[in-house]
Design goal:
The chain has one domain: Jelly Rolls (Sandwich), CATH 2.60.120. It is mainly beta. A hairpin with a 4-residue loop joins strand 7 and strand 8. About 35% of the residues are buried. It is globular and about 45 Å long. The protein is built from no helices and 22 strands. It has a seven-stranded mixed beta sheet, with no helix packed on it. It has a seven-stranded antiparallel beta sheet with strand order 2-3-4-11-6-9-12, with no helix packed on it. A four-stranded antiparallel beta sheet has the order 5-10-7-8, with no helix packed on it.
Amino acid sequence: MNVRIHKSEERGQADFGWLKARYSFSFADYYNPQSVHFGVLRVLNDDAIMPTMGFGTHPHDNMEIVTIPLSGRIQHKDSMGNIAEVKAGEIQVMSAGSGIMHSEFNPDEKEVLRLFQIWLYPNKKNVEPRYDQITLKDLEVKNEWYQVLSPYSSDQGVWVYQDAWFFMGKFDSGISANYLVKKPGNGLYIIVIEGDIEVGEKVLGKRDAISITEVENLEIKALSQTHLLVMEVPMHNF
C-alpha cells in the first residue's frame, strides 16, 4: 500500500476577490509537478464564490465534471438548454463529451457559495453531452458509506463515463468504517470535508486529504463528528 498525505495548507490557492479557491492539483496559474493529477482524477477545486458572482459562459469537452455544493446554491445554465439551481445536499454531473458551453453563478445576495468541483478524465471520448443532478438526502445513511457516483446509470447516485465510484459518509466520533475497493487496481483519494480522522497512524483534519494506491480495503476511524468524501478512480497515466 502506497500512502501520501496532502495537508490542507499545502494546496494551491488563488484569491480573485469574487472567488477564493484552493487547488488539490495543478490548475490555472497554479502548477505543482508533484500534484498534476491522481490517476483519472484531474481537478479537485475547493471554491468559495462571493454573493451574486460566478463564472461566465465558457467551454468544456471530453471531461466528466462533478459539482458538490457544501453550502449555498449555484445557478447553472448550459448549451444543452438546462437551467438549474443546485443546492447544498445535492450533486451535479456533466459529461462534456463532444463539447458544451455553460455558466455558473451564486444567485444569493448574502451567502457565500462553497463547493467542490471535480473533473475526471472519461473512458469514452466525444460522447453526446449530458447533464444530471440529484439530491443526496435519500441516499444518506448515518455512520455508513453511501454511494453518490458510479459508472452505472442503473446504480445509486449519478453516473459518469469512467470506472470511478464516489462515496460520502457522516460518522460520529469513535466510529470506524471500512472501505472496500470496487475495482482491483483503482486508487483512493479521500478528503475530510469536516472533522478529524485516523488512517493507520496518520491523523487528518478538515480539508486534509490522503491518496492511496495498491489497496484492497481501508479502515478509517472518526476522531470527531466527521464528513468525508472518498473518490475511487482508475490509476491510468495521462
